[in-house]
Fold this protein.
Amino acid sequence: MPLQVITANRLTDGAAVYLTPSGGWSTRVADAHAASDPETLGAIKARGDAAVADRLVVGVYAIPLAADPAAGPARLRERIRATGPTVTPPGYRAPADAAQLGPAAPGVRPDATV
Amino acid sequence: MQLYNYRADDRRFLAERVAEFRDQVARRLSGALSEDEFKPLRLMNGLYLQLHAYMLRVAIPYGTLASHQLRALAEIARRYDRGFGHFTTRQNIQFNWIKLEDTPEILALLASVDMHALQTSGNCIRNVTADHFAGVAADEIEDPRIWCELIRQWSTLHPEFSFLPRKFKIAVTGSPEDRAAVRVHDIGLVMVRDDAGAVGFEVLVGGGQGRTPMIASTIRRFVPKRDLLSYLEAIMRVYNLHGRRDNLFKARIKILVQSLGAEAFARAVDAEFATLQGGLATVDEAAVARIAADFAPPPYRPADPAAPEVKSVAAVEPAFARWTRTNLFAHKVAGHTAVIVSLKPPGGIPGDASADQMDALADLADRFSFGELRVTHGQNLVLPHVRLGEVPELWRALDVHGLATANAGLISDMIACPGLDYCSLANTRSIPIAQRLSRRFSDPDQIDRIGPLEIKISGCINACGHHHVGHIGILGVDKKGDEFYQITLGGRADGARSALGKLLGPAIPSARVIDVVQQIIDTYLAIRCPGEPFADTVARVGVGPFKTATTQERRDEAA
Ligand code: SF4
């Protein structure tokens, strides 16, 4: 079974966040508590669900990581969700407080060739 | 300026809605409301939760926008978002990184310029769309926006229409030439004259895109103006009563029209209409006259004899000449033109505009177009009332802001939905495909030679990118985690010729899409009759020759 992490959207701003080993939420997948055994996964998922009741996040679910966990989530959707759009809009300005990053996800940029 | 003037009642209503949502957000943040309780409330105010953040969809009713409103949108982009906005195929604008706690302030800011995010989400009658050249098109019978506004007022708070089986979309055109894609809406209204010359509406029902695309059927050739709302109400009643609430995929009115048959559906509507005609929903002439006064033409001035002629400037400025060929549209008042501002620069994101561009366009609208703009369902903007003598000056000013791309209606003027870069429902990305295509087809002479051609791209079967009616439609599908794309040919949404695209073959991987489109274009150029636009060639020869020409490329890909 591949390593999985627990993700959700932060209630206040909707940012994609990941449950950390200390029970906090980080905008970086690398900070997440990764587990593959069902028991641990069940426990951290329960922790995530509790954070919904605590009004920290919404929409908690587990996602698999890539075979090389350093590459981030396995699925493209989750990679884009983790790193931001793969395109740069006109006038794009990253927020000052951005741990949640904007465009330019390494590894998911489209082939620029035409 | 042609804009519905909010009255005290309208403002009070909006203020109440903002206050109500402010309270709902506070209760959500305090925990008094759960997410399940809150979600329908936020959706009623246009607030979605997408991949990266909340997204706020702001209504631009029938695509008409005043310069001061555009400045407010720029301010939202700058102050509450990340510096840009995305104009959509429903003539709305979306902001992609909105904080929940900021939303009440944003709605208040919108309300201060008579704007809101109502009817941009949920199972209600959505923001009504219209011909983006409404009120100025030379071929128009009447300005459809007066009727759009009436429908908006009638539908906003109508208790019968707040919980429909599914979302419901209405488009209105005042011209015989359909620029509002009325045949792919739940209800399409086309203004027509009867034999006596009176103006009324041809009513089409049951069109739509999504997973089960359909072209609408005419259920009544002529509904007089006074009966419009009664007749629409009759349609909504039949739908409300018989629509499939049990199955999300079968809940749109098109499925009902299909299962009953258009004639039986029309009879059911007629029976309902017989009980409603002449009743409460009968159109109040005084109310229409009040709205019509708001849409009175601006004080056009006669041509300035000293101004440079478009032709003479075009003779010495090839880039300007090219732009005037594609981006001007015939105006009903002599000496004027509507100007299409392309939001499709080579390599750009279709429909995106930066806050600075929005401010610049607001200023240009004030200088050249009586402070008025339009949003098109093709994700461009329009300055609707420009004096011909001022066109060269406007063009130079647009160019400074990267807004003078000469491609309206040409291959690089693509529609693309946000796709997997933003949308939580997406299978694949749409924008990078549009960007790669627009780079491949960026040579002005080449795209001129290809002529009118609409490519439309959706990142999933919900078809927000209108791929079913693209001359070339591109639909993203997920194949075991990889981005694949299905290509259709021959779709169109131009009035009686409206058709759904036909499949070219199995889906192909992302890396091959651009080359396959190139082969489609090469094939077209080789087989077209002189002057024959792409869509007509496909209608004449079918998909066959294109299938043959791309077989190798497609097979390579799938391998
Ligand atoms: S077509 Fe699909 S991917 Fe594109 S915006 Fe609509 S729901 Fe999202």
Q: What stands out?
A: Chain A has two helices and four strands.
